[in-house]
Design a protein that fits this description.
Layout lengths: L6 H13 L6 E4 L2 E4 L12 H9 L12 E5 L5 H9 L3 E6 L2 H13 L6 E5 L12 E7 L3 E3 L14 E3 L2 H9 L4 E12 L4 H10 L2 E13 L2 E12 L1
Parallel strand pairs: 3-4, 3-6, 4-5, 6-9, 7-8
Antiparallel strand pairs: 1-2, 9-11, 10-11
Length: 235
């Protein structure tokens, strides 16, 4: 395993971001101020959320985010979901397994005046969504670092950093396309911190294929990390 893929390093990054003395309650990104609650992934300490926003700008080839509906899985502070609403999505649902993140998304939706069209949901992936709900785009900036299958989270924030046994990724690949509208698209934001070979193997096992739509290489601390926007399709 390469050092950049080490789950123990990712857990150290999580703990440092959670406990550092200068962790703010409000931070700036893309010219806007954002609330940051305790136990929520801090985008100000990682460039990956900014990459997600760049990828969000790629959605115009499916007529988003200019209009239409978006489901963001793993919303965290809610930046992607809020920006989608600000850019024209008329219906945005933001789900997260971390209750602090759900509250954080709600705060930022109110801060930026989009609470009328953005609905935060406490959910393990799609579990709490109404069965008949569908979206033009489903998007997950995943917890792409692979942890051992028997690892148990010590803090709620760790859910945003590692995925034990890629159990959540398996479910996302299997389920995400069925939550799209006819002609809709399911996306996964992945990176070289994760195990791409294992991800493709999971896609094959679940009857899916992955199409790379965008790539972005960035410097993240001491590591050079490649971020990928993957489209999840039927094999």
């Amino acid at each position: 395993m390469r050092a950049v893929q080490s789950f123990t390093r990712s857990l150290e990054r999580s703990e440092n971001a959670r406990t550092r003395a200068d962790r703010p309650q409000v931070f700036s990104m893309r010219g806007r101020e954002w609330d940051l609650l305790d136990e929520v992934f801090a985008p100000n300490y990682s460039p990956s959320t900014s990459v997600s926003l760049e990828f969000l700008g790629c959605f115009e080839d499916v007529e988003l985010p200019r209009r239409g509906s978006l489901l963001e899985v793993g919303s965290g502070t809610g930046i992607v979901a809020v920006m989608a609403a600000l850019m024209g999505c008329d219906r945005v649902v933001a789900s997260d397994i971390n209750p602090h993140a759900v509250r954080n998304t709600e705060l930022n939706a109110r801060r930026h005046g989009v609470a009328d069209r953005l609905r935060p949901v406490y959910s393990d992936l799609f579990a709490a969504l109404p069965e008949n709900e569908r979206f033009d785009v489903v998007f997950w900036h995943s917890n792409y670092v692979l942890a051992p299958a028997d690892y148990r989270y010590r803090t709620t924030q760790e859910c945003a950093y590692v995925d034990p046994g890629y159990e959540a990724h398996r479910r996302y690949l299997a389920e995400a396309p069925r939550w799209t509208t006819e002609g809709g698209t399911a996306f996964l934001h992945f990176s070289s911190r994760g195990d791409l070979d294992a991800l493709h193997a999971l896609a094959e096992e679940t009857g899916r294929a992955l199409i790379t739509r965008r790539r972005r290489e960035i410097q993240d601390g001491p590591d050079t990390v490649e971020h990928l926007l993957l489209q999840v399709v039927a094999a």
